[in-house]
Each structure stands twice: as structure tokens, then as C-alpha cells.
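ok so i was messing around last nite and threw this chain in just to see what happens. nothing serious, just curious
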Amino acid sequence: MDLNRNAISTPAKLANKIKLYQVDAFTNKLFSGNPAAVCILDTWLSDELMQLIGNENNLAETAFIVPKEQYFEIRWFTPTVEVDLCGHATLASAFVLFNILNYSGSLIKFFSHRSGWLFAEKRDSLVFLNFPTDALTTLTEQQSKILEKCIGIKPIESYKGKTDYIAVINTETSLQNLQPNLIKIAKLKARALIVTAKGTRVDFVSRVFAPQSGINEDPVTGSAHTSLIPLWSAKLGKKNLIAKQISSRGGNLVCEFENERCLIGGEAKLYLTGEINIV
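result:
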């Protein structure tokens, strides 16, 4: 499969303007899921300028991608920091390439200097992200008490992944009614705190709080599911799972556990197309 800059039909950058797409990810209807901005560049901008654009967009993430001969390089910025991995903005990027820029083929290779090779496969209306599985470490009782103070509920299990803390609680109702202490969460040395429970209509549900990354509550967090999929696959004894992030916007995810890799599937909707004037 030819993954080159000729595989997309629209020029990424004209003079001092950058084409921008805003996409609602992990949803099949507008004004739900997780909004992400996607900027397709010819060459990389400075880190400072990309951070300024991420701040100006004021979305959970802005993805920047640069076409290479056989793949696309990708980076992600919140309003305040660059992050190691972002699922919904990668899904949004793949959606733009597949559905707006007429990318030829059903598989896209992305490369992140922070997270390695990532893949996006189109299956009918869904795009499946293929991400590396996170490795979880069980927290001590003392560490777990810190998470309890953050969420006001004693976790029944607690873990630390590569970038996030994870607290498992008893019920979906408790998770829905959770009132997190964002000041305490912001002090955690992590990207975010994931809180999860067994679902009533789906296999598992979650909420993600990341004030330390400029996002009080993330609407739908694809990358968090690299931690949640192996956790719930082991707990439920199944490889294929349906998940829902129960933020106010909400989002639906189709999950597959493949040991060292996780497949995270979802739909997306284009909200707007515009241009950034960087003169």
C-alpha cells in the first residue's frame, strides 16, 4: 500500500495558511463525543507555534500530522502541553484522511516519536486505532488512599499505567454521580486520573480527569483505553468489549484486546473546516 503525500488530495498548507478540520470523535452525531482539531502540514512548525495553536483552539487536543513517504508523523497538543499519546485526535486525523482528503487504502500508518507506531484501519463506518497495550502496576494501600481523596470514594482496585492513574469503583451509578476534587487530582504526577466501573448496558464505563494537562474532564479518551481494555478483558474474561465514556458529551468505543496491542474503534463526524492564518 502506497502511503505517501500523493495519497491525500488536498494541499496541507498554502502560503501562511494552515488547513484546519474540527471533528467530533467516538460518536455518530455532532455535539457529542470528543472534539479534536486536525492540522495537516507539509513540514513541522516550531514547538512554540504548535502549542500556541493548541491553546488558541482550546480543545482537549489538536493533532498535527506531516506526510512522509510511507506513513504520517503525528503529534498532539492540549491547550497547555504536548502529550505522549491521544486516541480521539488520532481517530479524528484518520477520519479526515479517509473521508475528507480521499486517502486511498484502508490502513494508515502513523508514527509518534513519543509512542512509536500507531495504525488506523477503516472498517465500514468505524475507524479502529491499533495502539500498544499499557502495562499496569497495582498501587499500595497508601497510594490508593491518595486516589480516594481525589474522588471521595474508596477504590476497590487502583493502578498506575505509563501516564495515568486508574481507580476502579463499584458501580456505574457511583461513577455517574462522582464529584472529583480537581485541585487534588491536579497534584498527581500523571497525565490524568481514570475512574472506571463495570457497565450496566456495556461492558465497562469510565470518566477521565486531567486538570494537570489543562482538561478538567476529557469527554472521550481513546488512549485511556489502552489501560482499560486489558484490565476489563482480564476481569470479564473476554477479548471483545463495548465501552462508554460517561462524560456530559459521552462517547462509544468498540474494543478488542490483542495482548500487546489494543484495537479501539469508533465513528466520527466533521464539525467544521477552516484555515489558520499564521502571518
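not much to say yet. The two ends are 37 Å apart (CA to CA).
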